[in-house]
Amino acid sequence: MSTRTPLLATTTVLLLIVMLALPASAAAQCPGNLLVNPGFEEGEYKTEGMGTSLSSAIGNGWTPWSILGDATINREVEYKTLHISTLESGHTIRSGARSQKFFTTYGSHTAGFYQRVQVPRGAKVTFSIWVLIYTGERDLESNGHPISDLEWPTQDKPNRGPGNYRASVGIDPYGDVPPGFGSLPSSNTVWSGTINEFDVRHEVDGIIDDHWAQLTVSTIAQGDYVTVYTRGMPEYPVKHNDSFWDDACLYSEAPPAPTAAPTNTPTETPIATETPVPTETPLPTEIPPATETPLPTDTPEPTMIPEPTATEPPPPTAALEPPTAAPATATPESVAQAPTTEPPPAADPEPTPADAEPTPGDVEPTPAPEETGGGEEETGFALPCGLGLVGLYGVVALIGALALAWVRMTGLH
Fold it and tell me: What is the rounded distance in angstroms from the CA atom of residue 383 to the CA atom of residue 316?
């Protein structure tokens, strides 16, 4: 016994040191807390005027709620704020000097407390609070403070057993509140999961104890206010159905700011065109080396064929008569000469008998003299003056031009 006393004293001192250090750490764990009096350190007020028992009181900023039943099931619940100065053990206060308690004796209940808080519309809100459960038929202690009775009753030992105390928290995203004491929270309330006395029981180094547990719930605010709730629901009306609450926290996460509309004028969305199916690319063929292109030759302009010079046809001559016989005293052959401007010769003298016209057959015809340079054939008749050579040259030129044109034409083909 003497050896255990210093150990208990040392444990109590360490527990007090931890408890004194908890308020600052608890506040630091919930920056921007939106709740009023979250640690129940800021006073209390009486609630008998709301329908609770005459001895009930609750922390400032909070409101009790409960279902009113009979003396056993949903019995009238009692609320108390605890102060460390009135307790034998500080186990029922998590941090600071105060905590909130509600309970029934030999009866069950469905009860709790709530607070309505203004928040940004559309924000995500999260509510949390720590709870300690003490329930059971027997008065059991461990480590210097009461603990729950978790041993179920039997036929041989009927006076024992837990109350199956279920604790949870909730948020009404619309900010509704019960119409009065004795009414349930709104059906819109979002509740967390529940824990019971079995969830908080721990054993360390052979020592069993009940510990604080944190309950948390989140939702999206549907209005400018939300209402946060605590709830305790023991199933069995055992002797002790108590719950202790401390270090509540509510914070919000602002909704994302709407994206500003672009200032640029939207362009018309082009209509999607059908993507052509790629065709097989043909292999490149060998390109033959370029050959030298011959320079074009000047096309000879066609030679203008001179039109034949119009010549006056020679006057008709008398039909050639048979040649006459040359006189015996014929003179040498005379060469026709171009006419001159000499005056015409004098009239011939009277013909002599020798000049008489011979009869046919008397004289053989004299062969035609060869053509002399530039002279006319001695045909027995003379060309008109100035026209013989010109006409001849014109005919020759025309024949030559026609021949040249024919050669060129046949040569082109």
Answer: 10
